[in-house]
Amino acid sequence: MEGFFEKDQERRSISELKETINQTIRVRRLTLALFLILALYFRFGAGLNFPLPLIFSPLMWGLITIPFSRLIEAQSSIKNLHNIHFGYFVVEVSILTYLIHIIGGVEWIGVAFYLFSVLYANFFLPPRKAWTLTFLVISFFTGMSFAEYAGLISHSSIFVENPTLYKNSFYVTTTILTGGAGLYITTAYTVQIFAKLFRKKNESLRKREAKLQQLWRELISVREEERQRLAQRLHDQLGQVLMGAKMKLDILDKEIDDTRLKEVKNLLSDAITENRDLSHMLRPSLLDELGLAPALRELVDNYKESTEIELTTSMELSEEIQAEEKKIIIYRAVQELLNNAVKHADPDRIEVNLTSKDSSIQLSVKDDGKGFDPDKVVKESGLGLKGIKENINIAGGEFKITSREGEGTRAQIILPLG
Question: How many CB atoms are closer than 10 A to CB 263?
């Protein structure tokens, strides 16, 4: 069981990290699009002599986010996610270095262009990879600045006609030490402290959530065991006593012709039927013997026999649900929803649909009854609907009720199979 919880937490951590990285990708695409629009405006609208690479570079930078996001989605471990992310940062700062070079190099505020890359890297990556990326940024900027200073690569600028600061050794060294090394080492250290605090708090919340889920599973298990024990006692003990009493009355009925005896027999038959129904409601045997779909069909058939409502079912499960608590959640949810519909909605027709799709189980219970205000009823109801909602949420699923007065009700449940 502990291994299951650890794997479940790792899966959720990977999913959360993927979603966070994808959010940063979306932010990058937006900022790159704005940068590209401004570059196009200054190049063609304002007539500035921008070098065309200033336009193409952010475009290419944005395009590499497409294969990067696909690579991120394909990963199944935290380590691989960090490796792919680190590789993207290296490509990103390489493009940034080229952009800084063509807009003025060490002379301009280009050193600040690395800021978001350093922030992201030190927040998302493990410390060793984050520091590697930080010093790579400083090395790229330092190498480009001294290469221009030494004349190894040409110097270009879009703002100054005859720039000379890139030839000033004091200016170049000061910019590298303060703007490059000083800024980014300080930023990296600060961000890593906050990231560590954030991860620690997040991990604490995850552990608390895992404990709550474990307690929830144990509670469901204990509750169902108690139901099963009571159902068995009702069936095996009380049921046998009632059947024995009825058999003796049947014998007496043949010897004594008394209407009072027949009335007692009828009452005893009703008690046997009620005992059997109560035992079945507490714990349906089909749920253990044949699985969820047959148990639900039997549940619907019982409502068909006891009401005049037209009930239809559609059960298409590609695989049987293995997690015991999830079978119980679905069964109890259908039981509660059918009971509510029969008692309060006054419907002519109820549809129960159960399918498995995309590693999840999807349930729909729809009626054509009176309808109601979902927010008001769920808030003011007893443990029924609230219990369904709480169980589904803790199990990582979704529970939604759509209803209007006079237009019927539809309850939908989506529960992951994993």
Answer: 10
What is the reported pTM? Answer: 0.58
Strand partners, 414: 362, 398
Residue pLDDT, tens place only, 208-228: 877 877 777 777 777 767 776
For residue 122, the tally of other CB atoms under 10 A from its CB is: 24
Q: With 0-12 CB in 10 A as exposed, 13-18 as middle and 19+ as buried, what is 186?
A: exposed
pLDDT tens string 107-166: 877 788 898 899 999 998 999 999 999 999 999 999 999 999 999 998 887 766 666 888
Order of strands across the sheet with 349-357? 310-316, 349-357, 360-367, 409-416, 398-403
Domain boundary among 215, 245, 270: 215
If asked whether residues 310 and 202 sit together in one domain, one would say no
In the numeric block, which tokens belong to residue 54? 């200033």
The CATH number of residue 373's host domain is: 3.30.565.10
φ/ψ region of 396 (left if φ > 0, alpha if ψ in -120 to 50, else beta) reads left
Q: Decide if 268 is inside a domain.
A: no
Cα gap 238→23, rounded to integer Å: 61
